[in-house]
Amino acid sequence: MNIAIIGCGDVGRCYAAALSQAGHQITGVCDSNPGRGLEAYANEIGALLHSSSGPWLAQVDLVISAVFGGVALDVARQSLPDMRKGAIYADFTTGNPGDLRASGELAAAAGVKYADVAITGAIGLGGARTPLLCAGDAADELIEIMRAVGAPSRKVGAAAGDAVALKLLRSVFTKGLEALAVECLMAAEQRGLRQELYEVLSDIDQSPIRSFMETVVTTHVRHAGRRLKEVQEARAQLRQDGIQPLALDGVMALFERTSGSIAADPLLEEPTIQNSLDWLFEQQKNNS
């Protein structure tokens, strides 16, 4: 398969190397600001170096876009008209889901198959074996290609943009935990209780993540008021320990909002994950 890589940072180079080793031909690499280092790299892998999209893309079977997310749609708009019908455009950027959905629509209009690909780990650690989420009409074909180079890949969602949307939702959870872990472990270290904290938190390991998330949401809509007091006490302890509670301030604001909503318009039914989320959406609308 003839492949072009647009965007030659860590991601682009990682997959160029892996696909080349798997027997594919990297016929062209493209970067808006090519330097001598990139020129040497292109020569090393036997690829032509380009500074922009153009007619040369008509010769490739697969284009991998690994540019910054903010320019993903512009790059797709520039590249798709020059691609042959039936070729695959795979967007590996962490762009706006709406932009990737729009790119998928442009691809369909051009007769090009499109895959939205979300990298769900650190390329610097996992390399080409970092797990991938794929969406779009070319998802199945791309999964086959990427699995052959060792990348655990699976299809998600129903349309282009769904893969990156799921990656960003995952980030809401993981980066939120990261921020809270920073504050929590700093405070535990300050008090000489870090090892004991790990033991106190060990019960959380016993629940599957889905069960844990749904349990905290369905009980949040009933008990946020009582739990708010505990959040406030925890915040006071962080401040007492000299830790600025930036993440916990956000947690407290959410609990305050839910607590006020419970007082004004409580959920009267027995909470389920569906009616809890519906109630939270309604309260957010009322508070906006």
TrEMBL record:
Entry keyword annotation includes Mitochondrion: no
The organism's place on the tree of life at top rank: Bacteria
GO MF annotation terms: NADP binding; oxidoreductase activity
Pfam family name, one: DUF1932
Active site: residue positions: K167
Domain 6-phosphogluconate dehydrogenase NADP-binding: 2-139
Keywords recorded for this protein, A-Z: Oxidoreductase
InterPro entries cross-referenced by the UniProt entry: 6-PGluconate_DH-like_C_sf, 6PGD_dom2, 6PGDH_NADP-bd, HIBADH-related, NAD(P)-bd_dom_sf, Pgluconate_DH_NAD-bd_C
Chain ranges of the Phosphogluconate dehydrogenase NAD-binding putative C-terminal domain: 188-257
Protein name per the record: 3-hydroxyisobutyrate dehydrogenase-like beta-hydroxyacid dehydrogenase
Organism annotation: Paracandidimonas soli
